[in-house]
Amino acid sequence: MKYDPSKEKCPLPYSIFRACITPRPIAWISTTDENGIDNLAPFSQCQIVTIDPPMVMFCANHYPDDTRKDSARNAESTGWFVWNMATEDLKEAVNKSAMIVPSQVDEFELANVAKIKADLSQIPMVADSPCQLECKYISTQTIKGNSNLGTVDLILGEVIRIHVKDEYIKDGMMDVSKTQVLARMGYIDYATIGNSFSMQVPMAPELLNIIMCGSD
Ligand SMILES: Cc1cc2nc3c(=O)[nH]c(=O)nc-3n(C[C@H](O)[C@H](O)[C@H](O)COP(=O)(O)O)c2cc1C
Predict the structure, then answer these.
(1) How would CATH label the architecture of 17-213?
(2) Where are the domains of the chain?
(3) Gene3D superfamilies recorded for this chain (predicted)?
C-alpha cells in the first residue's frame, strides 16, 4: 500500500504512520509547576538531539481546544525538566501517568510513583527508575499542525546531570538489557529489548574511542 497523508486519509482502518517508526524510546518527563504541583507524563515523540553537550527533546501535542500540555508549560516556567527512564517494571505507572487529568493533580500520586528530589532543581524524579537525566530547558519550537491536536511544542533541553543506579552499570557501561527499558511500538503496543548484539563500523581506533567514550 501507499498513500499521501497531505492529501488523503490512511486507507487502513488504523493510522499506520506511527507504526512506521518503531520502536520509539519513551521520555517519562517529570516537571513541577509554579505552585509546586508535580507532573509526570510519557512522550514517545522524543529523542537524543546531540551528545556534546548532551541534549534531548520531547514533543507535546496541543489538546483539541489548543491548550498546551503541562509538561511543556512547566519546563518553560521553571526552566527544568527530568527525563526518567521508563522500564517494564514501571509500565503500569507509565500508562497511568498519561491520563488526562487537571493540572492540579500530581501524577506521581495518581500513578503511585515514588519521588526523589533532583539535585539541581525542585523537580521530583522517579525514584525506581534506573536512570534520570536532569535537563535545563533551552527552547520551545511550536510547529503549527493541520488541527489543534496536530500542533506540537518541541521542547529542547540540555542534560546537566546524569544519574544511573550503580546496579545497572557493568564493565564500565550501562547494562541496557538489565534495565528492561520500555519502548513504544505502533498503536497501543510496547516492547522491551529481547535480542541485542554488538556490531562495529570499520574505523580507526581513535574514532571508535570517541564513539565509546565521548568527545573529551
Ligand atoms: C507511551 C505514551 C507515549 C506518549 N507520547 C506522547 C507524545 O509523544 N506526545 C504527546 O503529546 N502525548 C503523548 N502521550 C500522551 C501524554 O502522555 C498525555 O497527553 C499526558 O496526559 C500529558 O500530560 P501533561 O499534560 O501532564 O504533560 C503519550 C502517552 C503514552 C501512554
Answers:
(1) Roll (2.30)
(2) 17-213
(3) Electron Transport, Fmn-binding Protein, Chain A
